[in-house]
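One such shown below:
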Amino acid sequence: MQVNKLNIRLIFGLKVKHLRAQKGLSFAELSRETGISVSYLNEIEKGKKYPKADKIALLAKALGVSYDHLVSLKLNKRLAPVAELLNSGMLNSIPLGMFGLEMSTVLDLISAAPTKINAFINTLIKISRSYAMSEENFYFAALRSYQEMHNNYFEELETSVDNFVREYNINTNPPVARKHLIDILIKRFYYNIDRESMRQFPELASFRSVFVKEKRRLYINDSLTQMQQSFIIGKEIAFHYLQLEERPYTSNLFQVSSFEEVLNNFKASYFSVALLMNRHQFIRDLSHFFDRESWDTESFRNIIDKYEASPEMFLHRLTNLLPKYFGIDNFFFIRVNETVSEVREYHITKELHFSRLHNPHRNDVHQHYCRRWISIKSFEHLAKMEQESSSRGFLVDVQRAMFIGTQNEYLTICITRPNSPTPESNVSVSMGIQIDAAAKRRIRFLNNNELPIEMVNETCQKCSLMDCEQRVAPPSVLESAKSQELIQKKLEELKVL
């Protein structure tokens, strides 16, 4: 078992709770017998406190067990599922507190029905091992769930940005002055900025930045655009201004040691985007755009250019503000990476789902994402644009997409660009807004139906559209499901013979 202070407190508290229940003692009764306050007993059973030896002796006597039995880490068969779970380390990797849960509560639920729960726990552990689900996977899954629970809007971070702007007299008219932010990082937080040394390490070409804490030196990849550099500067300011101690030191989360690290990286990223794209001004710009009679790609690009924002920053800012300020909360966000080689490969590398409906998910392993989605089709458009021009900018595509066999319809806005600084790679970021009554009230051009509807699906393997020119794989998942339905039907027919 992973013996740490938390596990020791949890096991001790669980033993006390079950022994107290066996003896039929209330908190008040156990308090009278031991002289330990009810509040302290409650803290013990929750695994928050571990009493001193004299109090343990009093508890053991009152509960009718030996001192050694009470302090032993060995659990009986009834509590075997708890031992298994703590031994796996799985529960320790899930940030329960973020969802309003206490570890002791979860363990108590598990111990209440051990026979059935034991099989469930073993199943989870085996699945995690079979699919190589590391703690890191749990961390990012938990973070996505947390974002979705809060509609990806965090007022405390927005307020922190407002306070920072006032404290440092930041002019929020876009684009925010990069030099001012760099001066704050150097003069207030005593940073050294190095834009040259990373050239010496080609192995680090995909890293945008590295921070060496001991030297307070920030190494920035000199191939980055100005907007990418601004985002990095804003993140570094956030780590210090928000006093986020546990943090990653590379732009790519190369090695993740704790959930706090993942969460703090998210907070710093959110702060940076909110700083560079002031919510009050951005809301006004969005309102003007949504009031247009028809979709206008050039006007949309102009807003991105105005803020000197990267495509991902821009669409993420949309996900922050649409629910809170426009009442639009049914949408999804996905980022797709394209590897340019003889056989082009596509991987969903980031996703948020607020519509709870049919969206592409990256857990569709070994399946081919529907090529009808603008998120995939846009890569062809980008390649064509680059052949016709030397420009290495970004491309904006829009699509009105409806899922085959449903009435679920989305306005999908996709921005595609070369994946700098990673060579032979492109990236598209897409936001799909469900076209419902709320969206039509706030986005005027959704009512004119000028954009043609494209029928889409999740993956080729799940799709019933047999004459699709973009199909790259047979509908194996769909055919398997139909086969199962047919077998079930014949079994029912057999019963009535």
